Amino acid sequence: MYEDLKGKVVIITGARRGMGKADALAFAKNGAKVVVADISQEECQLVVDEIEKNGGEGLALKCDVTNEKEAEEMVKKTVEKFGKVDILVNNAGICQFKPFLELTEEEWKKTLDVNLKGYFLCAKAAAKEMLKHKSGAIVNIASVVMGQIGMGMAGLAHYSASKGGIAALTKTLALELAPYNIRVNAIAPGAIDTPMAASTKTDPKILEQTLAMIPLHRMGKAEEIASTVLFLTSDASSYITGSIVVVDGGWLAM
Ligand SMILES: NC(=O)c1ccc[n+]([C@@H]2O[C@H](COP(=O)([O-])OP(=O)(O)OC[C@H]3O[C@@H](n4cnc5c(N)ncnc54)[C@H](O)[C@@H]3O)[C@@H](O)[C@H]2O)c1
Questions:
Q1: Domains in the chain and their CATH numbers?
Q2: Would you give the DSSP letter of residue 221?
Q3: Cβ–Cβ < 8 Å for 249, 192
Q4: Is any atom of ligand 1 closer than 6 Å to the C-beta of 20?
Q5: CB within 8 A of 101, min separation 6: which ones?
Q6: Which three-class secondary structure string do you get for 4-19?
Q7: Whose CA is nearest to atom 32 of ligand 1?
Q8: pTM of the predicted model, to two decimals?
Q9: What string of DSSP letters covers 50-76?
Q10: Coil, strand, or helix at residue 84?
């Protein structure tokens, strides 16, 4: 438990399922007020219902992160309901395997729009609110597939470019927002058992190939990312900004 997260106002994008939902439930357990944002209002409400059933507080919001107006509306409605924004988890993402030579301009644009432009728009809207009270934390969900300290992956030209962009965005925002006491970090997950990675799990051959690259020899759980998100947004990490924390069962150590 992180005592300092009690009463904090947290926005999580892409939170109707997967890692975003695990983050939402973990923050609520720690006493934070959680805004569950995603493309489906109804599915966000189901997560909020679960939070409220356990005695927590939440707000379900429809937000397509590629739309600047919706990102700004999300922050506005959060402030109307809870009075402030302390934490943003940029988590919404899409991933489609396709060889580079077959990738269309439209597919490239869609991935970059959701995975990179969306992070920029939500960070900008939330940071404007955070700097009013000179404190805040932003966590961007990248991936081990991000080049740089990470790696490339065949079939993921668009996805890896977007995730590499998140790493660069994270370090730059950390520099620009440090004077306002807003910390910005990223998490690079490996293979995590969520709906996005369903094909890895259901195809025994892909699963075997994937696990062969992971020293801990299993996929990660959404809750294992959530525990890192909590650490990076709590006072326990008060001197950490501009970092990319790899949570991958040892994959990148291979
Ligand atoms: N699962 C993995 O193995 C893995 C590995 C590395 C990184 N990631 C990253 O983790 C994050 C969470 O993914 P997940 O595994 O929980 O997948 P997921 O598909 O379960 O969740 C992603 C969520 O993002 C939402 N989303 C998609 N487009 C959106 C948009 N335009 N606006 C708002 N929300 C939108 C989806 O509706 C979905 O709820 C993503 O950024 C993903 O790229 C996942």
A1: 3-253 (3.40.50.720)
A2: P
A3: no
A4: yes
A5: none
A6: HHCCCEEEEECCCCHH
A7: 64
A8: 0.97
A9: HHHHTT-EEEEEE--TT-HHHHHHHHH
A10: coil
